[in-house]
Amino acid sequence: MNSPPKSPRPATNRKRACAPKNRQSHTWPLDDAQTGTAATAADTTGAVNATALPLTGTSGATWHTGDVFSPDVQLDGKTGYLTTSSKALDLTGSFTLDAWVNPTALGGAVLAQNGSADAGLTLYAGSNGWVFALNTGAGTANSYDTITGGTVQLSAWTHLTVSYDTGNHVMSLYVDDVYVANGNHTAPTTGATGDFVIGYDGTRSFTGQIAQVQAWNGTALSPVQPYTP
């Protein structure tokens, strides 16, 4: 498969991201079928490096072909999402999440992990850019540390990566492999041990396509070199 085209190159004072090579915990290619409802989607890495966490999809999640990623999963922005049966990430430690997305509307959540009341983690398409948020408590109250960066381009594929470095208490956001935002999260989220969800965070439903979601436990992605176009 050819690599998806990148968005226009950003300013040269940004930094390029380097994907971690080890401790990969889960990979959901989201290419399991050509047509119909995305009722199930395999975790292809979990079976090797961790406990496999296959996804279960709702009726609003369907398989889609004929695009850069073919197939991928398409979500209707109403009832469509996919979820695991248990947590994918330990939010008390370092972690990295990575996905390709093609949003057709603002406001939708790409990835989330549930807490007892509110999401412990959410990544969504905000009106002022991509937003990465971590709950400041145990996932029981709607209180978050957030960072925002990049531009949400509708009807265009975008590569998103977020990470948390528990040693330095730093949240990071990368858009199309470029480091665009960081911020502090001093108290690790302790109670968000619910399901991992693609396309919904309890309030925001994603409209568009998602492909190649990956998760790493115990590793925070970091910039490694100046970005030179």
UniProtKB/TrEMBL annotation:
Statement: the UniProt record of this protein carries the keyword Hydrolase: no
Alphabetically ordered keywords of this record: Disulfide bond, Signal
SMART domains: LamGL (SM00560)
Residue stretches in coiled coil: none
Annotated region described as Disordered, given as residue ranges: 1-40
InterPro entries, per database record: ConA-like_dom_sf, LamG-like
Record-annotated LamG-like jellyroll fold domain positions: 93-224
Comp. bias regions, Low complexity: 31-40
Protein name: LamG domain-containing protein
Source organism: Actinocrinis puniceicyclus
Organism phylogeny: Bacteria, Bacillati, Actinomycetota, Actinomycetes, Catenulisporales
